[in-house]
Design brief:
heterodimer, A: 223 residues, B: 238 residues, mainly alpha, globular
């Protein structure tokens, strides 16, 4: 099917059912994910509409699992049909370049949602992965925005901002050590992370994050 | 033994107490499947046609539809786990659906939510996914037509809240589940060995897109279009 026709069909379909998240969540999630193959900006517009119009959902564990984690997971699955790489890289390559510029969505996820969509038992929550790739791809403004929004999130009940940052840095270390892709971490990113330490109130967490940031290599190791 | 089973079935199928003998009759179908699959399917079809007015109730669907699928799965699922269910449906269920149009009509067209009534009762989306990747466009088109006309999609008689936020097993969810099984069979590491020879052919993609025209209501068309396009464009870049 012609790409333009597909995009139009998906958009028209989304318009018809966008106000029925409660009963059509699986179809709407698939729509956003499928659109990411064709037009990331339209996909994020759709997602933003749902996030804005279902704010009570993003405030709860169950709701945020569906509307935040669920959308990102489904997006990874759909992107996996066109790209063989590990799913975490797909979010980094296809979604983050556009997500980083969407302050409205970043605020909804990292400031307004339950635990910024990343829960206690998840080492690699999808929202953590998004943040990781904002760091790896050098989106310093987005990194600053996310850390600011996390500091204002009153629903971080299971995951502290310090833990969120520590997890992210551990993931970066793992990615750096797996010799697959070359990434650099420039001074602007390191400065953004260091400036964000001010938001971490717990002293030991702040110290731990400070060490981790200072220990970050400037680039990954590749063969 | 086959004759014993069949005679038992015959003595009950036209009994005046038929409605109280459903479980026994379904057991006859399950037992007969060991000996003669074609005869078992004919017996099942007859039971379903007599129960057709009650296939709008979740407990009836569980007893007379899901139970048969479930027993076939248990019998042939050599690993005894949910991961192998797609292979079982492809090898042991799809072939008899191809030969039994009336069975297809009852299940996909006249059963509550086309038999998909809860998390572990997902046999019918799996079968549809198998038929799609097994490249049978005529059967897919037939099933799509039946699904679109199934008046019991998301019937108020079904309120099975297996997944917290999805309160209705509507046609959009049915087709989205079908897409997920297509994905699983074609991309999952555990499936690749068995399903590596299957693809979604170009004529199947055309058939799927064409089937959307069968839907007349805008909102239903919208919720069907999304998963159908996702299947039809499986593996296609933008």
């Amino acid at each position: 099917m012609n790409t333009d026709v597909t995009i139009k069909s998906l958009c028209d379909s989304f318009e018809q059912i966008k106000n029925f998240w409660e009963t059509k969540s699986s179809v709407l999630t698939l729509c956003i994910a499928e659109m990411m193959k064709y037009d990331a900006e339209i996909s994020l517009d759709m997602w933003c509409y749902l996030l804005k119009n279902n704010k009570k959902d993003i405030k709860t564990r169950e709701g945020s699992e569906l509307i935040i984690k669920g959308v990102l997971e489904k997006t990874e699955e759909v992107l996996a049909t066109i790209d063989d790489r590990d799913e975490e890289f797909l979010i980094g390559e296809y979604v983050v370049p556009y997500l980083a510029k969407r302050v409205d969505i970043l605020e909804l996820i990292y400031k307004k949602s339950f635990c910024a969509g990343s829960h206690q038992y998840e080492y690699m929550g999808e929202t953590t992965v998004c943040f990781v790739f904002m760091i790896l791809k050098g989106y310093s403004d987005a990194v600053r925005n996310v850390m600011y929004f996390l500091s204002k999130n009153t629903r971080m009940k299971e995951v502290s901002i310090g833990n969120f940052l520590t997890n992210s840095l551990e993931i970066i270390e793992r990615i750096f050590n797996n010799n697959e892709v070359y990434y650099e971490i420039g001074d602007d990113i390191k400065n953004a992370l260091l400036d964000s330490l001010a938001y971490i109130k717990n002293k030991s967490e702040r110290a731990e994050c400070s060490i981790a940031i200072m220990s970050l290599p400037n680039h990954s190791i590749t063969e | 033994m086959k004759n014993v089973i069949y005679n038992k079935y015959l003595s009950y199928i036209d009994s005046e107490h038929f409605n109280n003998l459903t479980n026994t009759l379904i057991q006859c179908v399950i037992d007969m499947e060991e000996y003669d699959t074609d005869l078992a399917m004919e017996m099942w079809r007859n039971i379903l046609s007599k129960k057709i007015d009650t296939l709008c109730y979740k407990n009836v669907v569980e007893d007379v539809v899901c139970r048969v699928f479930s027993s076939i799965n248990k019998k042939y699922n050599k690993y005894n786990n949910v991961d192998y269910i797609c292979e079982v449906m492809m090898q042991h269920v799809v072939p008899f659906l191809e030969k039994n149009d009336y069975l297809v009509e009852i299940i996909y067209g006249n059963t509550l939510n086309a038999g998909y009534i809860g998390y572990n009762q997902n046999f019918t989306p799996i079968c549809l996914a198998c038929i799609i990747i097994d490249d049978k466009p005529d059967l897919v088109y037939r099933i799509m037509g039946l699904l679109y006309k199934n008046k019991m999609m998301s019937s108020p008689n079904c309120s099975y809240f297996e997944e917290a936020a999805e309160k209705e097993y509507n046609i959009g969810k049915f087709l989205t589940a079908t897409y997920e099984y297509v994905w699983w069979m074609l991309l999952s590491d555990t499936k690749k060995e068995f399903f590596s020879k299957y693809r979604i052919s170009e004529r199947m993609k055309e058939c799927l897109v064409e089937s959307i025209k069968l839907i007349t209501k805008n909102k239903e068309r919208a919720e069907c279009t999304i998963p159908i396009l996702a299947i039809a464009n499986f593996g296609c870049r933008g």
